[in-house]
Amino acid sequence: MMDNATRPGHLMLAEMAEQPRIWNELLRRHADFAAIGRAIAARAPRFVLLAARGTSDHAALYAKYLIEILHGLPAGLVSPSTMTAYGATPDLRDVLLIAVSQSGGSPDLVQTVQTARHGGALTLAVTNNPNSALAEAAELNVDVMAGAERSVVATKSYTAQLLSLYLVLEHWRGGDARGADGIADRGGAVLEQGHPEIAACAPRYRFAQRMVVTGRGYAYPSAREAALKLMETSYVSAQAFSGADLLHGPLALLDPLVPVLAIVPDGVAGAAMAQVIPRVRQARADLFVVGTPAAVAEADAGFSLPAGTAEVLSPLLEILPFQILALHLAVARGEDPDAPRGLRKITKTT
């Protein structure tokens, strides 16, 4: 009989459980985030670029939505190879470049920050390692305080990045970020309720070879991160699409053997999915929904999120059920999500 320390996925499970505590620790650092927000405001950037890889890329995409919606500034995701492989040296005056990385050790991100700083950009590193090369290369640095991750699959560092980016960007625009108060309690409730409910759903998808994950607006980064978690842990081919993009062609992928995992939260993003869900139903695809109780009630399976969470913070909660699903689905398929084949904790790209 296995003890908890040898059970497949025990590291991932333990790190998922740490998330509410980490969020509370970040929320106690308003003064630190306010100082960074003031430093950015003093430079008055007119454009924001975001550099990241893997899971951190999805946190950066969330920040892109925040910047464009709440700050009214254009924002884009960098292709690091333009500066590393191709040697481009763009003029980045009046630009804020934010590099998001768990380890802060990827050479291409470090070089991107160095090149951007040389080109006149204000640079900010958001990392889980304040002593990393990336943090040293940037003018400003945020420690997401997730602590060491022993599981190869990132969980707690991702949501810590989300909350850290929210706090930086909210303080930059002069807000007090008090809208995030209580989010840790809600996250704890999702984790407590989600494990038994979603563990019961996981065997439903044990033999799935392909999945489609979809969401819109702030929920689209959550869809991309959910797909990555499923690929990393269960080796299922999971493709993420914006709900709008799904209707522009990939809908043809759907049939009864391709489950669709949809995020339908309160707010604009959930309302925008109203035209997507009926088309999924027409394809007779199995539908798993994370979102409002009404949306979950219309699905084949799913999980209801707590009501009353601001849409801008919903991604912190949306991803938790998918972390749980990735864990339990991997175990149901006889895999160990703590040790995905071919993967290492730190990936260094150039």
Summarize the structure.
This protein is an alpha/beta fold. The chain has helices at residues 10-17, 19-27, 30-43, 55-71, 107-118, 133-137, 156-172, 183-201, 219-234, 243-247, 268-272, 277-282, 293-297, 314-332; strands spanning 47-52, 75-77, 95-101, 122-127, 140-143, 210-215, 237-242, 260-264, 287-291, 301-304.
Description:
The protein has helices at 10-17, 19-27, 30-43, 55-71, 107-118, 133-137, 156-172, 183-201, 219-234, 243-247, 268-272, 277-282, 293-297, 314-332; strands spanning 47-52, 75-77, 95-101, 122-127, 140-143, 210-215, 237-242, 260-264, 287-291, 301-304. The longest helix has 19 residues, at 183-201. The protein is 45% helix and 15% strand. It has two domains: 10-180, Rossmann fold (3-Layer(aba) Sandwich); 183-332, Rossmann fold (3-Layer(aba) Sandwich). The termini are far apart. The strands form two sheets. It has a five-stranded parallel beta sheet, sandwiched between helices. It is of the alpha/beta class.
Secondary-structure topology with pairs:
Elements: H1 10-17, H2 19-27, H3 30-43, E1 47-52, H4 55-71, E2 75-77, E3 95-101, H5 107-118, E4 122-127, H6 133-137, E5 140-143, H7 156-172, H8 183-201, E6 210-215, H9 219-234, E7 237-242, H10 243-247, E8 260-264, H11 268-272, H12 277-282, E9 287-291, H13 293-297, E10 301-304, H14 314-332
Parallel strand pairs: 1-2, 1-3, 3-4, 4-5, 6-7, 6-8, 8-9, 9-10
Helix pairs in contact: 2-7, 2-8, 3-7, 4-7, 4-9, 8-14, 9-14
